[in-house]
């Protein structure tokens, strides 16, 4: 699992991460969305999240300061780019 690989690379403990205020607000928006609004809102959020993830991983893979995390980012980046491509196909279909 990718999360386990990141924990190992970054030497993190098993403390569950907390959602950032931004992500907590996004989750609240989805929880409060009507059935009609949920899907477009979810697709929009997934698009943004995947674009941000690809940018973050690409940036760290090129210039990160922790070699283990840098390698993790470089190895994970192709999967994230593939997921982003799937999301973009989803956007095009809707």
UniProtKB/TrEMBL annotation:
The record's InterPro entries line, in alphabetical order, gives: DUF4142 (IPR025419), Ferritin-like (IPR012347)
Q: Which Pfam families match?
A: DUF4142
Q: Which domain of life is it from?
A: Bacteria
- This protein is called Putative outer membrane protein
The DUF4142 domain sits at 3-90
């Amino acid at each position: 699992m990718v999360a386990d690989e990141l924990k190992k690379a970054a030497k993190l403990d098993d403390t569950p991460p907390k959602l950032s205020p931004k992500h907590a607000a996004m989750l609240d928006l989805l929880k409060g969305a009507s059935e009609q609004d949920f899907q477009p809102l979810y697709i929009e959020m997934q698009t943004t999240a995947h674009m941000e993830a690809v940018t973050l991983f690409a940036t760290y893979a090129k210039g990160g300061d922790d070699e283990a995390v840098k390698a993790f980012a470089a190895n994970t980046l192709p999967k994230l780019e593939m997921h982003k491509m799937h999301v973009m196909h989803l956007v095009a279909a809707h």
